[in-house]
Amino acid sequence: MELSVIFMFSGTLLFLATSPTNAQAASPPAPILPPTPAPAPAPIPPYVNLTDLLSVAGPFHTFLNYLESTKVIDTFQNQANNTEEGITIFVPKDSAFSSLKKPSLSNLTQDQLKQVILFHALPHYYSLSDFKNLSQLSPVSTFAGAGEFALNFTDVSGTVHLDSGWSKTKVSSSVHSTDPVAIYQVDKVLLPEAIFGTDIPPTPAPTPAPEISPAADSPSSELTREGHAPGIAPPNSAYRISNLGIWIQMVLAVSGVLVLFL
């Protein structure tokens, strides 16, 4: 219902109109927001090439050659780039391998050599600061397995020491330590007790070459027709001479007797 009121003020007509009683104030329109952008994908970590890292550092040529000949490089490479755990590798320098006297890696089978190389890595990324807590969890399983293929760690004034049960060494420098790959240089080759704690049959020594007998035509070996060397009497020569003397004496005795009867 709409009501109208008319007032007259000094000749001026004023008209007031009321709005409907049930009318409501109009609300302003809601603002239009732009669409929310999709979240950016997480950056893909760069591919870590272990061969390149070990080729420019070190020198680690001997260890790298063992990695490639045993195909362990493929295992380590996959762990470094295709897992969330990462990898920690302990790499001996070339001089550490050349200083090995006994036992020698050359006496190992191919499977044993592969276990030794796997023994130099942990299936997880550890920074140097992590080893202080890791020493309380020793022994730590390596890629070669647990038990006799585990490593013991101790932190001595910030220096990481490793004990394989057969050999002891320490981390001398950090080659690469960026998650997910940590590579540390060690002073000695890590020898697992599972292999070197038992008697490994040594490689048999080569059979000595037979001595070559003197030439058949040499003077020292030349034989006479009678079967003895020239200038050397045969074993029965003295016996023959003795018998001849007896016969001569008998002949002389008989001759003397005949002379007496004549």
TrEMBL record:
SMART domains xref list: FAS1
Subcellular compartments: Cell membrane
Key words, A-Z: Cell membrane, Glycoprotein, GPI-anchor, Lipoprotein, Membrane, Signal
Ranges of biased composition (kind: Pro residues): 202-211
Entry-linked SUPFAM superfamilies: FAS1 domain (SSF82153)
Signal peptide: 1-25
Annotated PROSITE patterns: FAS1
Main localization of the protein described in the UniProt heading: membrane
Pfam families: Fasciclin
Domain FAS1: 47-190
Topology class, membrane: Lipid-anchor; GPI-anchor
Region Disordered: start-end pairs: 202-232
Role: May be a cell surface adhesion protein.
Family statement: Belongs to the fasciclin-like AGP family.
Protein name as annotated: FAS1 domain-containing protein
Source organism: Hevea brasiliensis (Para rubber tree)
